[in-house]
Amino acid sequence: MNALLGSLLVLATFVTVCNAQCFVIPHENIPGNLPNECKDLDGVTHPMNSKWKTKSCQECSCDQHGISCCNAVAIPADYDTTKCEKIFNEKTCSYKVVERNDPEKTCPVSGWIM
Fold first, then answer.
1. Residue 9: is its pLDDT beyond 90?
2. What is the CATH number of domain 20-71?
3. What are residue 38's DSSP bridge partners?
């Protein structure tokens, strides 16, 4: 019983640490029709073998399998969450971590998630 509980604790830790930041949108399969472009979730078409960055800071590409997108933003994960807060800048697609009481002062971050 202790071994099972220990295994579950380790698994829960890995699930918490693992942060899936990519996804795939497959092509619609039409028999005999090879795609020459990809259509994203907003209905925008992209040429085959092209790459682009979305408004939500994801890097995407179009290939024979469909659209692949991954998060392009490093997220601060190891900092003093009581004293500090993370702030996202949409223009630069980046976070900064600052003191809650004095946002002019940055806080040290010792771990980031991609």
1. no
2. 2.10.70.10
3. 46
